[in-house]
Amino acid sequence: MKSKVWVLSSLITLLVQRVSSGGVLSSFMSPYESLRFQIPSQHSAMSKQCQQYSDHFCLTSWLSNYHNNNREPSTNDYLDFWSLLLPVYYSINWFPLNDGKVEKESCCTEQFRTYTEFGQSVGMTPHEYFKKVTDLTTKGKKINYIQAVFDATLCRNIIVQIGFGIGQLKIEGGSKITDLYFMPSHSELDIHLFNRLTIEEWLTFDWFKLNYMCKEQYWICNIM
Fold first, then answer.
1. Can you tell me the distance from the alpha carbon of 101 to that of 110, in angstroms, rounded to the nearest whole number?
2. Residue range of the domain that includes 46
3. DSSP characters for 107-124?
4. Mean pLDDT, residues 118-144 taken together
């Protein structure tokens, strides 16, 4: 009995030490990675701002519960990130969205803030984060994030931001009085209405690319 207690105590101590040292807690969690997009509409401040740049979508960020505390921020991070993003930000619709605040430039200050929050802070280099945020391949990505606002007139939840990647679906905002989720579209002829119970089956990354991303950035449909 004493030996079992000692083993259990040792395991708890080891776990506490690892968690407190940083960078290990995520290994005990289910992996989560999410590539996020804002949907242009009049239903949120960021969606309104996205609408100024695009009729279909705005890339906003990539985030995960990954941690690598072995890397410290470098003074070269800004220039490295800037040199990677500047030539391509327009072709991936990564514009400076900041809760509706108007930015004077399209690249790359606000995007760098996103990198520092979701990449640099968890030990990722500019190149590592850039590779993740520009990975538009379908394999391994399912819908795992929805941010919605409830429209009382239509009695449905309006999707304002969506994410695809690894991990369980997280839903923020909206109302539980309805299971209906509506994706705003530039065309009034396109009505995209989903049920909460089957949305993971129907709202796939391939579907999103075909119906939103490829309508503006045609080359994305060549990425499988």
1. 11
2. 23-224
3. SSHHHHHHHHHHTGGGT-
4. 96
- The dihedral of CA 109, 110, 113, 114: what is its sign? negative
Q: What's 142's DSSP letter?
A: E
Q: What is the CATH number of the domain that holds 150?
A: 3.90.730.10
Q: Which amino acid is at 162?
A: I
pTM: 0.85
Which residue in the block uniquely carries the two structure tokens 């906003």?
A: 60
| Count of domains forming the chain | 1
Segment (H or E) for 149 = strand 142-151
Please answer whether residues 216 and 92 qualify as being in contact, where contact means their C-beta atoms are separated by less than 8 angstroms: no
Q: 21-44 pLDDT, tens per residue?
A: 445 445 457 999 999 999 999 999
**What is the C-alpha to C-alpha distance for residues 90 and 134, in angstroms, rounded to an integer?**
12
- Give the chain's end-to-end CA distance (angstroms, integer): 56
Q: What are phi and psi of 191, to 5 degrees?
A: -115, 110
Q: Is residue 12 part of a domain?
A: no
With vertex at residue 42, the alpha carbon angle to CA 110 and CA 99, rounded to the nearest 5 degrees, is: 25
The Cα-based distances of 19 to 26, 68, 71, 117 in angstroms read: 9, 13, 17, 21
Token representation of residue 189: 């002829």
- Helix (H) or strand (E) holding 19, with range, is helix 2-21
Within-domain flag for 1: no
Q: Six-digit token pair at 39?
A: 């949907």
Would residue 16 count as lying in a domain?
no
In a domain, 10, yes or no: no
3-state percent helix, strand, coil for the chain, nearest multiple of 5 = 35, 20, 45
